[in-house]
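Pilot study result, target chain (302 residues):
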Amino acid sequence: MTTRAGFVALIGEPNAGKSTLTNQMVGAKVSIVTHKVQTTRARIRGVALEGDSQIVFVDTPGLFRPRRRLDRAMVAAAWGGAADADIIVLMVEAHRGVTPGVETILERLEEIGTGRRIALAINKIDRVKSEVLLALTRDLNERFPFAETFMISAEKGHGCDTLRKWLARELPEGPWLYPEDQIADLPLRMIAAEMTREKLTLRLHQELPYQLTVETEAWEERKDGSARVDQIVYVMRDGHKGIVLGNRGETIKSVSKAAREELSEFLGRKVHLFLQVKVRPNWLDEKERYSEMGLDFSDGNA
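Predicted structure:
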């Protein structure tokens, strides 16, 4: 039996649907999905099987114009994921078309694209009429020689099987990179922290979600098969701490409950989750915080 395995980098602007597609392909939630942009920070790897092929999806942070150190590190991680991949899939939102951001990505792809298969996935196809879709497909293929074009709805799953089968055929021959039952290569501590951060992002508004981070401080396996997980939510100001805690601690309680339920379901066993909120004014400039997020601190330099 000939097996195939390799890395597929999903790139695109923030909110293009990369995390949704990763979760759809893997068949489980391994990546944060929210209505807010720039929620994926690290390069999340989700593992999907298709026939004799093992496809490792690299869900990269959205590509945007970076302003802060964290932004710069996220964009560097995204391009790093693309440069290391066997196949790159550019995701474009059907209803937004060719934005200035997409044009910038196409220019960069021309620099790194030599000798690498690059496919186009036009996502959210249910939002536009077929003639708009065809015009966009033609326009993008005139701008860049994509190996293949797919029209998908990552959220509803339309077209995803066709894309997965194509990727499975195109990957290089070789042994599988992960055990058959493994769906992500992130440490459980980081998956748990990402789940809590997602719940905070969904619950809070405006700029605050980008000014907080979550770390799993301790993980204790208990004799009864359950796990005790202690996490710290770092915020930048005292006022932010009050927002995260909420009136009489209501916000942090509901976030903790939602994160605990999702983590318990993910692990298939009981989890005892304990959250603390701490003020760290300079966490965006601390090397350790970047390591926890799987980002390279030096990539954040201007």
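One observation from the pilot: Residues 199 and 258 are 7 Å apart (CA to CA). A full batch analysis is planned for the follow-on phase.
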